[in-house]
Automatic annotation (TrEMBL):
Lineage: Bacteria, Pseudomonadati, Pseudomonadota, Gammaproteobacteria, Lysobacterales
Pfam families per record: Poly_export, SLBB
Gene Ontology MF terms: polysaccharide transmembrane transporter activity
Protein name: Periplasmic protein involved in polysaccharide export
Signal peptide range: 1-21
Superkingdom: Bacteria
Soluble ligand binding domain sequence ranges: 123-176
InterPro entries: PEP-CTERM_polysacc_export, Poly_export, Poly_export_N, Soluble_ligand-bd
Keywords attached to this entry: Signal
Length: 210
């Protein structure tokens, strides 16, 4: 079993136990190991993670939704709530506070049902004047050419030699914007700017100025 899968199982099991205790259902379980408790408390919800919100004795307020790219979820009665970059406990507290205007002493539980943010962050995106703007899973050894071909190539309106690779800073790796001579790569076999991609890279192909 992979490390990510083990973490996912641990987090979901612990959040289930925590929800039972919070909701007041009377379910009883032994105290979890300290290290597992810390893992639950430390996990920060990410974009595309799926969360389940339940409000005790108010099932109509319950939802199970993925976290949107803006880091928010939409909850009945109160609207958008920030979830990205926060723990499930923090999100539950925020929802509880906002629901007090509508529900007497709301008991809220937020449970992670799917951990998908790591996949979202490890994708490569191709935007602009390509035939099919895409977000594709990053693979070791993937290059600019691989990603552009996955997007169906450039359109007739593209200015391929003004393509840019946008990279955010990572540990031991600076970020920045890098010019890609995509026309040279595609049509002349010049691979000098056919950079090897890292997770999270964005390739932007502009349209030519008419």
């Amino acid at each position: 079993m992979s490390r990510m899968l083990r973490l996912a199982c641990t987090v979901m099991c612990m959040m289930f136990l925590s929800a039972c205790a919070t909701s007041g259902t009377g379910a009883r379980a032994d105290a979890p190991p300290a290290d597992a408790t810390q893992a639950v408390k430390a996990y920060l919800i990410g974009v595309d993670d799926v969360v389940q919100v339940s409000v005790w004795r108010n099932p109509e307020l319950g939802i199970t939704v993925p976290v949107r790219p803006d880091g928010k979820i939409s909850v009945p009665l109160i609207g958008d709530v920030a979830a990205g970059g926060r723990t499930p406990e923090q999100v539950a507290d925020d929802i509880k506070q906002k629901l007090t205007a509508y529900v007497r002493d709301p008991q809220v539980a937020v449970i992670l049902t799917e951990l998908r943010s790591h996949e979202y962050l490890s994708r490569v995106r191709v935007t602009g004047a390509v035939r099919n703007p895409v977000s594709v899973p990053w693979r070791q050894g993937m290059t600019v050419l691989d990603a552009v071909l996955a997007a169906g190539g450039v359109t007739e309106f593209a200015a391929p030699d003004r393509t840019e690779l946008h990279r955010r800073p990572k540990e031991n790796m600076p970020g920045g914007n890098y010019r890609v001579r995509l026309d040279q790569v595609l049509n002349k076999g010049d691979l000098g700017t056919n950079y090897t991609l890292t997770s999270g890279d964005v390739i932007s192909v502009p349209e030519r100025v008419l």
